[in-house]
Structure formats: C-alpha cells, structure tokens
Amino acid sequence: MRVALFITCVNDTLFPGTGKAVVSLLRRLGCDVEFPAAQTCCGQMHVNTGYREEGVRLARHFTEVFAGYDAVVAPSGSCAAMVREQYPKLAKPGSRGAAAIAEVVPKVFELSEFLLDVLKVEDVGAYFPHRVTYHPTCHSLRGLHLGDRPTRLLQHVRGLELVPLPGSEECCGFGGTFSVKNPAISAAMGADKTRNILHTGAEVLCAADNSCLMHIGGTLSRQKTGVRTMHLAEILASTEKAQ
Q1: For the whole model, what pTM was predicted?
Q2: Cβ-based neighbours of 228, under 8 Å, separated by 6 or more
C-alpha cells in the first residue's frame, strides 16, 4: 500500500519525532511510506481567521501534492479534520479544483483511523510499560468522531496501564488562534485539564494532536508535575527493544 505522510506544520517544525514514529510504525505494518517534500500548511489557520483565498490556494496545492497515493496519513486530528471538513466547502462546485478535492479528500486519514479502519489492526506490536491517560482533542472528538479508536489501540499496548481522564471531553483551551486571542481563558482551561490529569496519577498524557499536548505540557512543566506528554504515534511505535 502506497502511503503518504502528511506531517503538518506543528509536527514538522516542533515535533519531528512524531513523524519519524509514524513512518516507523507504518513500515513495521507493511506499508510503503513516502514523504512528499513539496507539502505545506493545510490552511487551517488561514481559513479560521478569514483568509479564505489563501486557504483555497493551499487546498489546491495539497491536492496536487498528494494525488496518486492510496492513502494520506496525518498524526493530527486537527489538520485531518481541516482537509476532510473544510476543503469540500472551499471549492467551487463543478470546478477542476472540486474534482481534485473529491478525489483526494476521502483518502486522508488520522493515524488511528488508518490503523483500525483501513489496515484493520488493533494490536500494532507496541510495548510501553507506563501508566497513561488519554486526552481526546476537540477536532478528533467532534470533527473526525474518532470515538474509542485511540484508546482501543492503547489497550493493546503491552505493559501499558490506561487510566480514564476525568472531564476528558472538555477542551484543553488551546484551539490554535483561540489561545492567542483569549490567553487568560485558554490558561484557565489548561489549568483545569492539568488538575484532572494529576488526579489520574498517570506518568504520561497521550493525545492525537501535538498542538494540544504542547499547550497542556506547558502547564504540566511549569507546575513541575513530572508528567510527560507523548503523541499516540510515539507510544504505538515504541517496542521492547527501544525501552
């Protein structure tokens, strides 16, 4: 299966280890993974702040870069949701751009979707002997409706103890540009999320979006909690040999 990695801006610039983990995991499961170097931003920030034409341009570029692949996998519920939800709304009906979007968009998957819905795998052969709690990010929960896909994968990781997170469906307060426009509210929401995480006694907080983990992780770090943040891909790529 010829798979393209859509790395996303946050991962490319701040969390390259997540992208490496996705490649390692998918190759372990038999996929032929490629990284199209011409890929750029999906346009989420542009569209969300009113720059629609820039979003249209970036959507057109995205479809050109990722055309021809069997699947496009992103380690981000946020960016995958942008492509799947917003791209069809950006294209002019009946246009060549609309046709290109209709061809590519159905092949775009968040990582846990791809593993469970396409590869039909729940046990990916991972080993991670730690107490973990999972935060379902807003776009993955409400946009992609991932449901229990990430936790089903975590439950099959050997050595991992998965503990429920109180108030898990509450937003962490990041919300991309929301945290910039409303810093006080964002910080208060992050503090609430941190308090719930500490209540679990978990060593590691896991999520499917590094943007949210970055926000929550900042609060965890400033409070010197000792709780680490890890992307779902990094836990799933972990093996006994790597420990």
Answers
A1: 0.92
A2: 203, 204, 205
